[in-house]
């Protein structure tokens, strides 16, 4: 959920939606951002929990998944909430992403789409291709690639900071949206 952007769009598109975030603060921010009137009878549910464990959703039940996880621990979204994947190093993060992929595959109806937005990261001057490594987690759980979209990313908060320090490497200026299908 984060700040609830996806749920806001779902409401505007008159879709029913389930939003999940491990951080109770994200749930309350999303709830606040959803307090607008529009001609929509959609049902929006919010749940404080982990995307790695969706027992409250039946198998083959969901028409579309849209997820935007943290990029491992590059930005920490909490100070120690258990299950918050933004507190994990790359390998542990990917292990959790495999669980997210497995649960996503289970709850999604056959033939439907799961989209994930994720970017690469840089540690000690070297690129870690977190995007493609996360993509592999979803492929290993049975999804197939329908599209790989490269989203340019400019004018970020951190741009100034990195520009001053980036004389030996290029700035990462894109993210991926992997669009998977459950065949
Ligand atoms: C990149 S932000 C999402 C931003 C969102 N797209 C928006 O527009 O606001 C990542 C979110 O993932 C949440 N998160 C971290 N670990 C999680 C987990 N195990 N299950 C569900 N959400 C988690 C964080 O609390 C954070 O709100």
Description:
By secondary structure, this protein is an alpha/beta fold. It has 2 domains: 1-49, no CATH class; 51-182, 3-Layer(aba) Sandwich (Rossmann fold), CATH 3.40.50.150. It is built from 5 helices and 8 strands; from the N terminus they run αβαββαβββαβαβ. The protein has a 4-stranded mixed sheet. A two-stranded parallel ribbon has the order 1-2. Helix 3 (90-107) packs parallel to helix 4 (130-140). The longest helix has 18 residues, at 90-107. The structure holds S-adenosylmethionine. S-adenosylmethionine binds next to strand 1.
Précis, in short:
With 183 residues, this protein is α/β, with parallel strands linked by helices. It is 30% helix and 27% strand. The chain starts with a helix and ends with a strand.
Structure summary, number of beta strands: 8
Please count the helical segments.
5
Q: How far is the first residue's CA from the last residue's CA? A: 26 Å
SS strand fraction: 25-35%
The helicity comes to 25-40%
Going by CATH, what is the homologous superfamily of the largest domain?
A: Vaccinia Virus protein VP39
SSE pattern? HEHEEHEEEHEHE
Secondary-structure-based class equals alpha/beta
Enumerate the strands of the largest sheet in spatial order, edge to edge or round the barrel.
3-4-8-7
* The CATH topology of the largest domain: Rossmann fold
**So what's the CATH class of the largest domain?**
Alpha Beta
Give the CA-based shape. Answer: globular
Which compounds are bound in this model?
Answer: S-adenosylmethionine
Q: State the major sheet.
A: 4 strands, mixed
